[in-house]
């Protein structure tokens, strides 16, 4: 039997309270640890289908299956959970602005194709190494892109809040209080608590129709054929819409890929294991990309590694990937309960608006933090120009009269969203303009080098709550 290569440490001894094998704690405790991870990802994961119109049941199913696939490809060594990605919400909104059932499969097609970029970068990381690849995606490009994702979505949050500002403010208040003054698990799940609290208030003021919950079955299949990408390939296939969806949504993967790299660095630092060296970033990217493609093809949101679960790792000091796989199993079990999905689907727009107002703002704040933490020098004209053009193109086109740039290629009509145009132009402009600064490698080369020579590397645990 081939010997398993151990995961290298990051130059420091393991903490005495750290648990790398949860089996030593007994089965009941392992189950509780798994449930805790499931609840940590729960609020954000089910919020994405609620905002976009996708299936909640399919989302839970493929969050669990995607996590298992990720663990399989990363040799079962990385304690990461894959949940719904918020970065693609703008893409769904561009193709199916009101969650139209007939348009969502085309949006899912675009997301599935974006998974190909994960596979391509995974191959590039394997062949060329991280330093040569990351030079094309420095913070001066990715930071403004992430900022625009949140700002473009802001108008929909306000529109939902306007249906009942009282309920929306309750959701906002609960999230803020739990996140700032909460302790232990309360601080880990402010989104979930905000949803539950505001939902209860909405029910008390008569904003909830419970009939769909009463009509729903207790057990059912989480995936419907009409919601899958495969359903659009037929006599009614719209090639122009498919091409538009692919071109519009694929660039969003650049932001989530950078997010993935940040999450892997954070998990490595939290667990005192260099997962970038072993099993390797090429494996984790491959797992994330294939999980995203699988979920999208069957009508579920794109998957991404979840910062909330990194927070649980830091809180509990239980670093065993088996615990995360238990959380994935629980998510799969919940996916086969249509009554549970109906409870989520009945959530009023005002609840969604209050929660999304905070989340969308925090997405933009993550982009700003990306610029600040990487010390992007805005005294340099080239950096100002790159960021300015990304911001103006992305926001200007998104809020223009047409909302996109539309043109014909033969008989096919193609529409490019502001975010797609801004991302592509920003990447090309950054490559074209002279740059005397050393290219950014995401800190990956430094981390790998420090680990190879046995030196400790100080790394900040970056908890990204908006995966």
Automatic annotation (TrEMBL):
Keyword Membrane: yes
Domain of life: Bacteria
One Pfam family named in its UniProt record: Xan_ur_permease
Listed transmembrane segments: 30-48, 54-73, 80-97, 103-124, 136-159, 165-181, 188-206, 239-258, 323-345, 351-372, 384-401, 407-429
The UniProt record lists the keyword Cell wall biogenesis/degradation: no
UniProt main location, coarse: membrane
Keywords on record: Membrane, Transmembrane, Transmembrane helix, Transport
GO cellular component terms, semicolon-separated: plasma membrane
Membrane topology (UniProt): Multi-pass membrane protein
InterPro entries: NCS2 (IPR006043), Xan_ur_permease (IPR006042)
Protein family membership: Belongs to the nucleobase:cation symporter-2 (NCS2) (TC 2.A.40) family.
UniProt protein name: Uracil-xanthine permease
């Amino acid at each position: 039997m081939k010997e398993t290569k151990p995961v290298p440490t990051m130059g420091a001894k393991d903490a005495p309270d750290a648990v790398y094998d949860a089996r030593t704690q007994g089965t009941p405790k392992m189950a509780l640890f798994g449930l805790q991870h499931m609840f940590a990802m729960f609020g954000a994961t089910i919020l994405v289908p609620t905002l976009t119109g996708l299936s909640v049941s399919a989302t839970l199913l493929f969050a669990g299956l995607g996590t298992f696939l990720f663990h399989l490809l990363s040799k079962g060594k990385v304690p990461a959970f894959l949940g719904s990605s918020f970065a693609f919400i703008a893409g769904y909104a561009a193709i199916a602005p009101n969650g139209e059932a007939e348009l969502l499969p085309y949006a899912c097609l675009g997301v599935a194709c974006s998974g190909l970029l994960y596979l391509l970068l995974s191959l590039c990381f394997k062949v060329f190494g991280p330093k040569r690849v990351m030079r094309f995606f420095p913070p001066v490009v990715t930071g403004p892109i992430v900022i625009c994702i949140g700002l473009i979505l802001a108008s929909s949050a306000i529109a939902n809040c306007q249906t009942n500002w009282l309920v929306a403010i309750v959701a906002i208040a609960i999230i803020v209080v739990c996140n700032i003054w909460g302790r232990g698990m309360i601080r880990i799940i402010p989104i979930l608590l905000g949803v539950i609290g505001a939902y209860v208030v909405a029910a008390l003021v008569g904003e909830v129709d419970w009939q769909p919950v009463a009509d729903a079955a207790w057990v059912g299949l989480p995936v419907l054929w009409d919601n899958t990408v495969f359903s659009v390939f037929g006599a009614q296939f719209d090639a122009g819409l498919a091409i538009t969806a692919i071109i519009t949504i694929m660039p969003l993967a650049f932001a989530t890929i950078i997010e993935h790299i940040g999450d892997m660095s954070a998990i490595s630092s939290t667990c005192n294991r260099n997962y970038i060296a072993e099993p390797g970033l090429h494996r984790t990217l491959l797992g994330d990309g294939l999980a995203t493609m699988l979920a999208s093809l069957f009508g579920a949101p794109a998957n991404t590694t979840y910062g909330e679960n990194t927070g649980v790792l830091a809180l509990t000091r239980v670093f065993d990937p088996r615990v995360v796989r238990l959380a994935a199993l629980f998510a799969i079990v919940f996916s086969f309960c249509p009554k549970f999905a109906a409870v989520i689907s009945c959530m009023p727009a005002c609840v969604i608006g209050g929660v999304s107002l905070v989340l969308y703002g925090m997405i933009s704040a993550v982009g700003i933090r990306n610029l600040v933490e990487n010390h992007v020098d805005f005294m340099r004209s080239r950096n100002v120009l790159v960021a300015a053009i990304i911001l103006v193109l992305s926001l200007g086109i998104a809020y223009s009269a047409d909302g996109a740039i539309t043109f014909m290629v033969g008989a096919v009509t193609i529409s490019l969203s502001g975010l797609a145009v801004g991302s592509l132009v920003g990447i090309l402009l950054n490559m074209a303009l002279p740059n005397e600064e050393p290219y950014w490698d995401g800190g990956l080369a430094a981390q790998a080098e420090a680990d190879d020579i046995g030196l400790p590397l100080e790394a900040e645990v970056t908890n990204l709550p908006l995966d």
